[in-house]
Design goal:
heterodimer, A: Rossmann fold, Rossmann fold, 2 domains, 5-stranded mixed sheet, 13 helices, about 40% helix, B: Rossmann fold, 8-stranded mixed sheet, 10 helices, binds thiamine diphosphate, binds iron/sulfur cluster, binds magnesium ion
Chain lengths: ~375, ~280
């Protein structure tokens, strides 16, 4: 099955029962698959009138008590940004898939890129934290979609899957384990007196329990700066407290959220850093360079946001160079450079998008910096 | 002191909507003479007397003075982004069809930035009740032109008068497929409350336009004192049920038609989805 279909199947396996979407290449197949499968499992699919509506609808779906998802590509991702901010501010669990294509603007609609990485981090206005994962195969997109739902439920926040046209459209064998082997999490549920319930009072992990509409909690949910009760408070102090809570639930749990994969880091002199489809390029480049006798390692970012700052900083202390491989003109490369803090030179292998990066290009850079 | 004696001490009477209002959020932000409060109480009274399970009833608003309504109602209430109350409400309803979902928002919110969502929700016959407080301008941001501002009216962004024509909202709702459409002013609270109640109890997409003054931003620039606006609501309106839909422009230089304009039945979005998409064998 294709990466897009595997993503949809992963969502269903995770318990997603509401999808609000809008067609866009190369993400359309996710919506198509969900439109067929959701009614079979008692869920609901709706094609909204645009991506703004799609994003708003999944926030509504989440407050109705459902695990909710949408999927899009660059132009639609841009339209979703305001309501992604609403999701962050109101601590609404949901999953947004971006099957990245070439931008800016309409760009190359049918060709892959990884150039929305900074938009994923900073695209909505204001300060906030976000969680984003980057799968490198159809099988992985299946599992990562489940993980994305689990993280979004655990931390009550929108979670992104930052995949790309190449992974989305590639056909690979995908093994779907039996349902009882799949761990699915749900948002923490409130207990105790309903009239004393505080919608944003953090419990375990710094995350507040979340009731659904209709359960008798009379919640007030607003994108205005609010207190623990959820009521708007127009003050600098309330803003500081709210932001502190929003950031802390992510910042205090980095070890739980950040997933990386280490390949031959122990003796590495040059380390590749990559994610998504470019991770496959990097793996091949690492293996070929090792065959040529160069001690090359590879750090794969499975979680791209929050950024694996600590891991990069530690590598920067001891390697000759870090090489970021990504299909853009240097986005995560900026983060790698920042985390390396001048301790080691940082290089980029990237281009403006439309095709994968070949292992040869990476090897050429490795040879230069080795 | 004996209990009876204590009971004689005067106690301020309870507000009849006390149980539906977040009294811990009062005072509200609305200006003196503003029409929103009256429309809001009519909506609450209608909800209360409708016999609906209020625990299963939600209010969704967008952004604007009218959009603050969701912040004062003691129900599950959602104050979303500018223009997006309807798609949020759509997700809420589809996520749990047992919920009764009422959207309360402003004319700018629902018909300028959110206009696309309105027509599509009406087309699908989403089971929502949409109440629009139409004050002919963007109150919250200081009185700019809206999609409902009368031709030639003055606002901060039409200092020489509005060069554009306003929407006829009931016509738009009807053409988009709404199954219930009514219009009242805040002077007609009894009719308004009855119609809101009917709309809430009705399956399908219901739309109620409420004309209400914004004396601070619209009235002031158009030489209308609050009382004059209300007088106009009394003298220059006429109640007509089942009128010609294209006679429903809001033009107070002529006469503005009020009443219940559409009340028909067709399958809702959810009914159609269940019938069309769920039976696959
Ligand atoms: C995306 C976005 N654009 C602009 C605004 C600024 N804004 C806030 S309320 C409003 C207009 C509200 O008008 P209306 O819906 O008629 O409500 P009223 O205040 O008149 O009740 C605007 C433009 C915003 N909050 N968000
Ligand atoms: S600005 Fe206008 S609409 Fe807003 S509260 Fe004041 S009178 Fe009402
Ligand atoms: Mg208005």
């Amino acid at each position: 099955m294709t990466g897009d279909e595997a993503c949809a199947e992963g969502a269903l396996a995770a318990g997603c029962r509401f999808f609000g979407g809008y067609p866009i290449t190369p993400a359309t197949e996710i919506a198509e698959h969900m439109s067929k499968r959701l009614p079979e499992v008692g869920g609901t699919f709706i094609q909204m009138e645009d991506e703004i509506a799609a994003m708003a609808s999944i926030l509504g779906g989440a407050w109705a008590g459902q695990k909710s998802m949408t999927a899009t590509s660059g132009p639609g991702f841009s339209l979703m940004m305001e309501n992604i901010g609403l999701g962050v501010c109101t601590e609404t669990p949901c999953v947004v898939v971006n099957v990245q294509r070439v931008g800016p603007s309409t760009g190359l609609p049918t060709m892959g890129a990884q150039a929305d990485m900074m938009q994923a981090r900073w695209g909505s206005h204001g300060d906030y934290r976000i969680i984003a994962l980057a799968p490198m195969s159809a099988q992985e997109i299946f599992f990562q979609t489940i993980t994305a739902f689990n993280l979004s439920e655990r931390y009550r926040t929108p979670v992104f899957i930052m995949t790309d046209e190449i992974v989305g459209h590639m056909s690979e064998k995908v093994i779907i384990p039996p349902a009882d082997r799949i761990i699915t999490e749900w948002r923490p549920k409130p207990s105790g007196r309903k009239d004393r319930f505080l919608l944003y009072k953090p419990g375990k992990n710094g995350v507040a329990p979340m009731p659904a509409a209709g359960e008798g909690y009379n919640v007030h949910v607003t994108g205005l700066t609010h207190d623990e009760k959820g009521y708007p408070v127009m003050s600098v102090e309330a803003q500081e407290q709210m932001m502190d809570r929003l950031c802390r639930k992510i910042d205090d749990n980095l070890d739980d959220i950040i997933m990386t994969e280490a390949h031959h880091l122990d003796d590495a002199e040059v380390v590749l850093v990559s994610y998504g489809i470019s991770a496959r390029t990097s793996l091949a480049a690492m293996q070929q360079s090792r065959a040529m006798g160069m001690k090359v390692g590879f750090l794969r970012l499975i979680t791209v946001w929050p950024f694996a700052q600590r891991q990069i900083a530690a590598l920067a202390e001891r390697v000759k160079a870090l090489v970021t491989v990504e299909i853009n003109l240097g986005q995560m490369h900026l983060e790698v450079t920042r985390a390396a803090a001048g301790k080691t030179p940082c290089h980029l292998v990237g281009h403006a998008g439309g095709t994968i990066i070949s292992p040869d290009q990476v090897i050429a850079t490795i040879k230069e910096v080795y | 002191m004996p209990a009876t004696a204590r009971n004689l001490t005067p106690k301020s009477p309870e507000h009849p909507l006390e149980d539906l209002i977040r009294s811990d959020r009062i005072p509200h932000i609305w200006c003196p003479g503003c029409g929103i409060g009256t429309a809001f109480s009519a909506a609450l009274t209608a909800m209360k007397t409708s016999g609906l399970d209020l625990q299963k009833t939600c209010m969704v608003s967008g952004i604007g003075c009218s959009g603050r309504a969701a912040g004062y109602v003691k129900l599950d209430s959602f104050h979303t982004t500018h223009g997006r109350a309807i798609p949020f409400a759509t997700g809420l309803k589809l996520g749990n069809p047992a919920l009764n979902v009422v959207v309360f928002s402003g004319d700018g919110d629902l018909f300028a930035i959110g206009g696309n969502h309105f027509i599509h929700a009406a087309r699908r016959n989403m089971d929502l009740t949409v109440i629009c407080l139409n004050n002919l301008n963007y109150g919250m941001t200081g009185g700019q032109v809206a999609a409902t501002t009368p031709f030639h009216a003055r606002t901060t962004t039409t200092p020489s008068g509005n060069p554009d024509a306003p929407f006829n909202l009931p016509l738009l709702a009807w053409a988009s497929g709404a199954t219930y459409v009514a219009r009242w002013t805040i002077l007609h609270t009894r009719e308004l409350t009855e119609c809101i109640q009917k709309a809430i109890l009705k399956n399908g997409f219901s739309f109620i336009e409420v004309l209400g003054p914004c004396p601070i931003n619209y009235g002031r620039r158009n030489k209308e004192k609050s009382l004059q606006t209300l007088k106009m609501y009394q003298e220059r309106t006429i109640i007509r049920n089942n009128p010609q839909m294209d006679d429903l422009d809001v033009d107070f230089t002529k006469q503005v038609v009020l009443g219940e304009f559409v009340d028909k039945d067709r399958p809702t979005c959810i009914e159609n989805y269940d019938k069309t998409c769920r039976i696959l064998e």
